[in-house]
Amino acid sequence: MRAVVHERYGGPEVLRVVDVPTPRPAAGQVLVRVEATSVNLSDWEGLTGSPAYARLAGLRAPRRPTLGSDIAGTVEAVGAGVTRFAPGDEVYGDNLELMGGFAEYAVAPEKALAAKPAGLTSAEASTIPQAGAIALQGTALAADGRRVLVNGAGGGTGTFAIQLAKRVGAHVTGVDNEHKLAFMRSLGADDVVDYRREDFTRGREPYDLILDLVAHRSVFAYRRALAPGGTYRCVGGSVRSMLRVLTVGSLAGRLTGRSLGVLMVRQGPASFGTLADLCVAGDVEIRIDRVVGLDEVPEALARVGEGRALGKVVVAPR
Ligand SMILES: NC(=O)c1ccc[n+]([C@@H]2O[C@H](COP(=O)([O-])OP(=O)(O)OC[C@H]3O[C@@H](n4cnc5c(N)ncnc54)[C@H](OP(=O)(O)O)[C@@H]3O)[C@@H](O)[C@H]2O)c1
User: How many domains does the chain have?
Assistant: First the structure.
């Protein structure tokens, strides 16, 4: 089968499209004929090996040569002990543990997969698992009249997070680069901030909830941006910022009646199924920037990693 591989960390130039043996499902695993895999920032981080947490699975060289975790496709074969799926079933899920979605076939643990809703195409379904799980959990405290800010809101997760917070009546501010301001407004953001021109932690009415997808500032800046009783949660960004939030942040927050912490994202179908239902019902919109083939994966990863994509970039290996 054809697969996109990388044997060392680096830019898009280290990726190659090659023929490799089709994987076989071990016990508890499912072999999926991949129809679509959406690109996440975590794929770019896995390619470049940066931030440092991206090397947890391989310090010097990538442990999984083929990236791509948000897969959607058709079950081709199942390993021993698999009970929920059979060949021919349409499935989707976040295969963060084994990756391998930028290929014609991928193996995934049965527990990572769910039946694909009939109302979604494979490309649409592939946009949901990882970004959806983060967006649902990251906006769980959004409520009517609360001021919510999403930092990095023009990306895959932010696209869902803005809409989820707006649905419950929150006032939503989206922060991202200048090319994404109109895009964030089109998703319902009440206010938008270009992070290269303005520091959202200064001179603004404070926020009740901040979901930070790209934490780079100091704990004290985040605390300053929070209203009393407010909550700040980050899921990605620099290791230094995240460690500080975990340590100094939780203490500094508690002392001033605010909560600062890292969002420990629960994964698996139970974590993204509700968003798929909302998408099928038309209550939340899926935005796809473009669909590309395996040969265009290097450019697709760069497009996401360099913040140029308006919506999800999806790879269709066939
Ligand atoms: N905790 C977990 O379990 C878990 C699991 C998976 C993923 N994640 C994390 O979740 C995060 C979100 O992923 P995603 O796929 O939604 O990312 P994405 O689609 O790439 O969106 C991130 C957006 O943030 C912007 N950005 C970068 N630096 C910024 C800054 N300093 N201020 C404001 N905006 C900035 C980017 O644009 P520019 O690049 O142009 O600035 C981009 O538009 C990633 O950090 C990823 O590592 C966490």
Answer: 2
